[in-house]
Amino acid sequence: MTGVVARLEKTAITPAGVPRQRFWLEHRSRQEEDGHPREVQVRLAVVLVGRKAELIQGLKEGQNVRVTGFLSRAGYKGEARDRVQLIAETLVPLD
Amino acid sequence: MTGVVARLEKTAITPAGVPRQRFWLEHRSRQEEDGHPREVQVRLAVVLVGRKAELIQGLKEGQNVRVTGFLSRAGYKGEARDRVQLIAETLVPLD
């Protein structure tokens, strides 16, 4: 998914000592829905775990990036169960 | 995305008279996170708009399906802004 880095958060360290870096990605594109063009917006939490957290170095809010990875629920209790996040496998700055 | 139809909702009709059918998809898979295997779960709202709503016919809760489409925010106000849904382009039963 491509998008703009909307908000960078502080790096967190899990109880097992693993760094977890989260940022918010805003994606906009035009898609076709039932035969009609439509503007699409998505705001998605992207999480970088362990060594991947280093990919964030030098990244700035407002920068365009491309992220690949897999979707995962944000947690296992309460409303986090239904919240979706992207666990990043690659992160490439586009500007 | 593949998954199980967790909950089928009633078909809604928009003010413009367009049918919108929503169901909840539960996906489980094993992925690699920072070099370690990990079980991944995602619970995602899937929305079928207009003629696509017909794809739901005969579909039952508990059935395995494959869905393709694009991610979109669920709404433009409040917490819906940060909720992600999948606008379906194809829906194929797997059993």
Automatic annotation (TrEMBL), chains A, B:
Record's signal peptide: none
GO molecular function: single-stranded DNA binding
Record keyword Ubl conjugation present: no
GO biological process: DNA replication, synthesis of primer
PROSITE patterns the UniProt entry points to: SSB
Coiled-coil boundaries: none
Keywords carried by this UniProt record: DNA replication, DNA-binding, Primosome
Pfam families named in the record: SSB_1
GO cellular component: primosome complex
NCBIfam families per UniProt: PriB_gamma (TIGR04418)
Protein name (Swiss-Prot/TrEMBL): Primosomal replication protein N
Gene: priB
